[in-house]
Amino acid sequence: MKIDGKPPRINLTEIAVISLIGRIAPPLTRGSAYRLGQDGGLRVLPGSGGITLSHRIGDRCVGLAADHLEPAVSFRAVDQGVESTKGAANRALNVLACVGNKVEIVSGPATGTLGVVTGKHGGVANVMADFPVKAMRRLRIGDMIRVTSCGQGMRLRDFDQVTVMNASPDLLTRWGVLVRGGRLSVPVTHMVPSALMGSGLGKSSAARGDYDIQLFDDDIVRRFRLASLRFGDMVAIMDAAGRFGRSFMRGQVTVGVVVHSDSTVAGHGPGVTTLLAGPVNEIAVEHDPEANLAKILEIRRLARPKIERTFVRRTPHLAPVGSIRSGRRLST
User: Helix (H, G, I), strand (E, B), or coil: what is residue 310?
Assistant: First the structure.
């Protein structure tokens, strides 16, 4: 029964609670140290993995001297399977860990420290969690993190056309998602045209990982205020189907959370992990500048919204040193 002004009814008694385990993951660099930017520039920048002391949920994620930076702590499962199940443990962690799930450090100097899952990153297949900076300074690569998984399998009992995934029941309740006029009213900080979506399209499921908002078109970025995005912002991707994978479809909307920073690489940008997906006649997105995990889960104060230039725009691509000077070609 849809009751105006109330949260949607969910199948809480059907949802399983499972304990998962992972280790804090080291930063990784594949091949060359350089990243080839969309503008043709080569840059050496920090990226995914590790313990990021400088940025957490609620901080700005655009304009950083970084590429696909994951806020706070990145972790992944230790794979002890045989060849036929290689990678299965980490795939299970990526599927079953849900945004808003509680986590606990269970080894090392910071044992007992509590935190929360904040997102999942496709490709590198890391899960991210937020902890206080004081605790993160005691963490070590390889320390164990236990996740109390709860959320996959959740369904909205009165909205059959809406799929909820990667979200804990606690998050859905505290987010402020309410029934209004027979539709779900969902608070978001930004609305994103589906034409901007890049890496992650075409996946057969949105139940793990993320897909990226491209920020290379200055006019569109300005029109939709996308240069003010923060880690943890709830965003609505318009004309985007996400119930059974990620694709363009008019009249559909995908709502998710920003999980990693901007990128200089073509087709990439701030990543979004899907939380809700369905038709616009079932989901009505509402602008709320404070619809961010840091505020929703009372983790910390939000950074003030501010328009930032992307790192590509801050560091324009230059011709190789010695090739051209003052418009005249140098002699050899």
Answer: coil
